[in-house]
Amino acid sequence: MSGHGLPSQLRVIDSHTIGEPTRVVIDESFGAGLDLGTGTVRERRDRFRERYDHVRSALVGDPRGAVAMVGVILVPPADPMCRVGAFYVNRVGYLDMCGHATIGLAVTLGSLGRIEPGSFRLETPAGVVGVTWHGGGDASFEGVPPRRIHRGLRISCDDGSDVSGDVATSGLWFSICRDHGLPVEPAAIPALTARAWSIRRALEARGITGDGGETIDHVMLLGPPAEAGHDGRAFVLCPDGAFDRSPCGTGTSALVGCLFEDGMLEEGRTWRQESVLGGVYEASMRREGSMLIPTVRGRAWIAAETTLHFAADDPYRTGLGNF
Ligand code: PYC
Q: Residue 139 pLDDT more than 50?
């Protein structure tokens, strides 16, 4: 494949948000070298997908990326209220919003001195979100207002299990299920992954989609917390087939929307959500006029400052592809 648009070198900062990896492209000239036209971040992202999808696979796919990695590409925001514009890529495609990568982005920009502690508005393909860098590795984001389109939906899976769940969004689509019958713990990750795929296939087979036919491509399996003082635990299967090492930022945001609607979470109370690996996000809901705004707070750590090389004679300069 041609390396059109792919520079010979690209500087990135890798971080992880309680285990879930993010790679932010930090070369100021990178976006300028791509012909993404003008318009919103969503429009520029769509042009990137049409013209430079191989740059995505070069950036986060094998052999340079990591399983579960989400890449962040900075572009000028169209909304004058926004300080930063960004879209999100993974090994198989594009995410309209990504909570853990937004936390990783804030911590990365802070570590570079490009932002000061405080809040800024970020334009994403899913819309404008508020982000706060609290200093160090601590950051939070205000998610897209959550919306549930199915509650307690009965699902018969092709592995013989019958489960029930909600379908909700907060920038990404989630099937959220409690009665999946598995322990949410590391030893059960292969079984949780298989069950989550089975739920995803069952939803697809029944034609259950999000707005405009969008695939329900994230599955969240809930369980009780392992630690006293925490409220819940989640395993989340992502579209690339990897499980989220964090509790999933947008998933937690969609979940607190459902909990709030069900009267299980009051305005302003903190919900502490564990990942299947034990890392914790703190989430809450607040009203703003007629809107309900979720906030998710977590920690990220810088893992590497790297220059990626894409030699012209490297047969895998645009990645190995999906297999
Ligand atoms: O944190 O929103 C998130 C996320 C989505 C996919 C991986 N992480």
A: yes
